[in-house]
Amino acid sequence: MTPHELAQNLTRRELFGRTGTGIGAIALSALLQRDSSAAARPKNPMSAKLPHFAPRAKHVIFLHMVGAPTQLDLFDYKPALCEHDGQPVPKELIEGRRFAFLRGHPKLLGTRYKFSKHGQSGLELSELLPHLAGVADDIAVVKTLHTEEFNHAPAQLFLHTGFGQFGRPSLGSWVAYGLGSESQTLPGFVVLMTGTTAGAGNSLWGSGFLPTVYQGVQFRNQGDAVLFLSDPPGMVRADRRRMLDSVQQLNRAQLADVGDPEIATRIAQYEMAFRMQASVPELMDISTEPTGIHAMYGTEPGTASFANHCLLARRLVERDVRFVQIFNNGWDMHSGVFKNLPHKCKDIDQPAAALIRDLKQRGLLDDTLVVWGGEFGRTPMLQGDNSDKNPGRDHHKDAFCVWMAGGGVRGGTTYGQTDDLGYLPVADPMHMQDFHATILHLLGMDHEKLTFKFGGRDFRLTDIGGHVADKLLA
Question: pTM of the predicted model, to two decimals?
């Protein structure tokens, strides 16, 4: 049969029956090409994501006092401890308990500082924190936080990852994974540091088994804020863009071929790095702030200080950075606590209070959660030779203080109560997993639903525990 005769004798049904395979092949080819194109242009893994429910907070500024401040001299006044100062600690409090350095039968050590009530709430604070006293009605002090680790590096890991060993994602990484970022020109998770790096190192802002796109980005205090951010001599921005486009084309082809999520991370980070070349220098130049702002924080442009970092934190959340983590070293006072503590408080008191005031006056405090604290607390017992010449305090994991402000927290309140010596919780104890669950809740995330499958099981920040501290919620 000739083609002409075939065409004359075919019915419509026969035509589609004989050509359907070809039409289907064309359609399938088009679909595969569309899917391939979608894979070649992956969605940015840091794109903003919807929370589980309406959030109280959109941003977090976490102020970590590395080395562990003494809560008994700052937030948890104990008249009975002062009354029994120098007396041996009751045996039942130390029998069967482990300490980092305390040995024998230590003596009790009361505070040397006056405490007063402040604000309409009557929040009780040490005289070493006069600026924080001015924002007493905006902060909530947790007095019964407890952890499972009594040495610095494991306790730092437990504070930031919910686990005392290396390998788990940090709190900031979980937040970035759960919510992404609304910033198009800056990382979603930024780290600032004064002093030496904490004992647990960069695992405190690492992504663990989460994709590396969710790890924190440390901004340095000198030179390029981020290593290799500046173009080399002779490189102009247009040349950088052309080079990046060529590299990204290869990356997208490889992603379409193997589907490795780390390739998507690389694509997103290269693009972010290009945008950061313009955004980061502008961000870091705090000299553009008004004189009154510098006076309020106590900043000194061109230096590395906690004050500068607090101001930078405000500038970062203003630019939609999701999580800012600030480390301030020097709180480990096994001796000379009454000599060294006033100096550390002077460094952080004014900037921390200014951060709260500044966020509040700009309308940012309502959706920015500020957290201040260390990896554990300090003992009510004297560490040393049991003399009063140069007393210190050992590590104490069973009850210590942190404070929180903004982001849906009920200001001017205290959460929990310790015994007369400030040794153990007697009301509303808060485990570290409860602390993490509460932070995630304020961000609109259910800590039991924020999971990631790794090694054959679903992991979460709060492991198998955690309860939201409803009394802290506004």
Answer: 0.86
